[in-house]
């Protein structure tokens, strides 16, 4: 609800495998993937690793209630755009996404 109120088109799936299957159908049409780390069938790290095998150019945000340093480093190595702790308030999520999609300031 938080993101649809901001005008975003949202698709939700039940697990990592379903996300992979959905993304494989038309990954170029999706500009942001928000995933949890802990999911059935395929966790967030596996999903992001697979996304990086595609020419996916969108942003990737990972939520987790707990990440050990090894897993966090693996996400950083895969160049995820944000690692966010759970829980997160809707206003914080909107702020992070606004920053993530902000146009860079052009130097004159």
Would you mind describing this structure in some detail?
- The longest helix is centred in the first third of the chain and has 11 residues, at 16-26.
- The termini are far apart.
- The chain is α/β, with parallel strands linked by helices and 108 residues long.
- The protein contains four helices and three strands; from the N terminus they run H-E-H-E-H-E-H.
- It has one domain (4-100): Rossmann fold.
- Helix 1 (16-26) packs parallel to helix 2.
- The chain has a three-stranded parallel beta sheet, covered by helices on one side.
- The chain has helices spanning 16-26, 44-51, 69-77, 90-100; strands at residues 32-36, 59-64, 82-85.
- Strand 1, helix 2 and strand 2 (59-64) form a beta-alpha-beta unit.
CA-based gyration radius: 14 Å
Looking at the structure, the CATH topology is Rossmann fold
CATH-defined superfamily: Response regulator
Overall geometry comes to: globular
| Spatial separation of the terminal alpha carbons | 39 Å
- As residue ranges, the low-confidence spans are none
CATH architecture, by name, is 3-Layer(aba) Sandwich
CATH class: Alpha Beta
N-to-C SSE string, H for helix and E for strand: HEHEHEH
Going across the major beta sheet, what is the strand order?
1-2-3
């Amino acid at each position: 609800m938080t993101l649809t109120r901001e005008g975003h088109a949202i698709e939700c799936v039940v697990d990592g495998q379903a996300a992979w299957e959905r993304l494989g159908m038309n990954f170029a049409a999706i500009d942001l993937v928000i995933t949890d780390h802990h999911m059935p069938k395929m966790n967030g790290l596996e999903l992001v690793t697979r996304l990086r095998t595609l020419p996916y150019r969108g942003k990737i945000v990972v939520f987790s209630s707990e990440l050990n340093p090894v897993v966090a480093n693996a996400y950083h190595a895969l160049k995820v755009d944000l690692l966010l702790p759970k829980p997160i308030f809707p206003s914080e999520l909107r702020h992070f996404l606004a920053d993530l999609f902000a146009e860079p300031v052009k130097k004159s």
